[in-house]
């Protein structure tokens, strides 16, 4: 069932005939010279119902070409599309436009009068596989025509997307006497901004063109392939980066040692409740040695803190506190190492530009990444200073042996100083955690309440 045939080499369309002229064609001698447009077999003019006019094979058995059967609903939709396209200035419709190879036919081709724009409307009322949608859409794209599928219901989700307009008009729908009534059907689509009916959609599509960013099915497949290859390349680059980082960490650990192993046990006692650990490592740029450190505050009445080197630090870090620097300098005076102390300077991350305080090489000013410092194994650290009174100097303390799997290194069990031992007498105010000598301006030293700091000591 087709709407077109060839008469003496010229196209004739069933939609252009009235009921009376159609009957005249059926009874005229011209009917014997009509042939089907693709296979060239003799055609005959037929009528179904009161309004459906179409061409069919005079003898179907003589045809070897697969035309595919078309229902009255299919023919009516094609007629409605032709009527809508022909009334838009600058456009004309070609019903059942054959490809030059005669291998396939476009249901309704909308072509601009200057032949620069072509839109292929395909009426698909029966189900077909996604592969057929993709293959048929691709051949329209390759042929220079933008395809639009008119379907009764939404397609199932698929990675590949084709242009569709869902009308709700299917094979079992009632065929109106006037095909133009189908232009009032709803048209759910995402190709162009238009009113929710088929006629307004077709007119807006022809006047403004489709807003289609997905491309052809082959272009979408190529884009997915390129994205997958890019993801694989990024994953491989990340794997190599992580491998290089792990190798750099291993090299850093090989070049690192605990200060106790290098210079003997020298633990400096401070009047502040701060523990400081140190590690001897080398610059990755100039290979110059340096001392890096980590600090923790001991809480009154709490357990002795363990070594937990932070992988990330902010603009202010406790290791840069003057009291911590003083403890490290006192250890250097006591141990007399031939390794300089690393500097702490502000730096910014390359990825996000975040400001942080980093250890830098004292020789070449190269940044020592905090993530690498945090990966130095626990056995490469040892205690530099711990809390203790002036009058009482406990025996030197060394780091206990730890397994590589431990992420923290426990500090030797040194008895925490008592408040009575730290204070020089009952008349002396209780010191804070950072100042050995009470300061008048310090809320902690004077035990003044501070809403930002909270209550640090029990009320006596």
TrEMBL record:
Residues 211-241, 384-425 are annotated as: Disordered. InterPro entries: CoiA_nuc. Pfam families: CoiA_nuc (PF06054). Residues 70-157 form the Competence protein CoiA nuclease-like domain. It comes from the Bacteria. Residues 400-411 have a biased composition (Low complexity). This is Competence protein CoiA family protein. It comes from Paenarthrobacter ureafaciens.
